[in-house]
Amino acid sequence: GTALVSYFVSEKSRQLYTFVVMPGGLRVRHQSLPANFERWLKGFNNSLFFSEVSTYLRTAPELSRLLNPHVPAAVKQLIIIPSGRLSTLPFEALLTKKAEGETFSRFPYWVHRYAISYEFAAALLLQKKPRADDTDGSILLCAPVQFSDADNLDDLPGTLDEVQAISQLFGANRFQMALRKKANETLLKSDSLTNFRYLHFATHGVVNEQAPELSRIFLSGDDGEDGHLFAGEIYNLNLKADLAVLSACQTGLGKFSKGEGVIGLSRALVYAGAHSIVVSFWSVADASTSALMTQFYEQLTTKAASFPNAMQTAKSNMARSSQYGSPYYWAPFVLIGN
């Protein structure tokens, strides 16, 4: 079963409202926000980013208790609509029960129990209609690899391995590679993007929290274009993709807007026509990102898994591994849409 879980934080009354919608109806619960709520949030996210297990064990149990949706065991999928500062919380890294020991790869995370996806608002979820299957299930794989010295960005050699591994899962004539100089703005602004069911961008991204329209994806420059695809430009794209993946840095963050959650590159892609998207909350090494993305697409192509189930399997496998068990590697990537 699936449950829709919407969280609303009232700063004025210091209340947390949790709305849970299941086939059996609607359940509403409200709790007073603890005095340490903001500290828990900051400490929890920092513990993930810095792989600080002691801080995690102080904050994760408190947040897990507070945010527990209390759904029946039959519920295996959650669609989460967060609000305010909860919009930057990777719920998959919360705990279903008390953690034993101090090893990240052995903790009972939500990701082991639930396939989780996110939405900006319930209204957007209701507006979505089944997409006509007028694409051939192919994928555009875009990786500029190297960047202008003026941008002061590290090269991403691991993205070549990432897109090569993903392409092998799709077979001949079902993928197009746009590498290095071919991964440019002219390509992304062309009508050819409407031919692909999947769009995958393995590159850098930057979010401008003060001016969300200046958030950007970094590509290769070409004639008349600087290689910076701004959020304001993404709004004008014509996409028909079931899924757009930003395998990049901090693409899920953005400015907080009252009643709308986080406005960043993710909202621009949805407006442009992407049915579902994958974005990240923080920068992650390209080698571990490649491992996660390859597992994700393997589930889609060989197991015919849904987007939430494919992401759950990829994350859960990584969370149990000795090499990438820390949530730093797998928690930042979130699926928005379903």
Instruction: Average the pLDDT over all residues and give the rounded result.
Output: 86
Please report which band the strand proportion falls in: under 5%, 5-15%, 15-25%, 25-35%, 35-45% or over 45%. Answer: 15-25%
Helix content: 25-40%
Q: Give the overall shape.
A: globular
Question: What is the SS-derived class?
Answer: alpha/beta
Main β-sheet, spatial strand arrangement = 7-6-8-12-15-16
**Using only CA atoms, what is the Rg?**
19 Å
- The low-pLDDT segments are 252-263
Note the gap between the termini.
Answer: 14 Å
Q: Order of SSEs, N→C?
A: EEEHHEHEHEHEHEEEEHEEEHEHHHE
The largest sheet is: 6 strands, mixed
Q: What count of helical segments does DSSP give?
A: 11
Number of strands: 16
Outline the fold blueprint.
Layout: E1 2-10, E2 15-22, E3 25-32, H1 37-49, H2 53-67, E4 77-81, H3 110-113, E5 115-118, H4 122-127, E6 139-143, H5 158-170, E7 175-179, H6 185-188, E8 198-202, E9 205-206, E10 216-218, E11 228-230, H7 231-234, E12 243-247, E13 255-257, E14 261-263, H8 265-272, E15 276-280, H9 286-302, H10 307-319, H11 327-330, E16 333-336
Parallel strand pairs: 1-4, 4-5, 6-7, 6-8, 8-12, 12-15
Antiparallel strand pairs: 1-2, 2-3, 9-10, 10-11, 13-14, 15-16
Helix pairs in contact: 1-2, 5-9, 9-10
Walk me through the structure.
The chain is of the alpha/beta class and 338 residues long. It has 11 helices and 16 strands. The protein has helices at residues 37-49, 53-67, 110-113, 122-127, 158-170, 185-188, 231-234, 265-272, 286-302, 307-319, 327-330, and strands at residues 2-10, 15-22, 25-32, 77-81, 115-118, 139-143, 175-179, 198-202, 205-206, 216-218, 228-230, 243-247, 255-257, 261-263, 276-280, 333-336. A 6-stranded mixed sheet has the order 7-6-8-12-15-16, sandwiched between helices. Strand 1 and strand 2 form a beta hairpin.
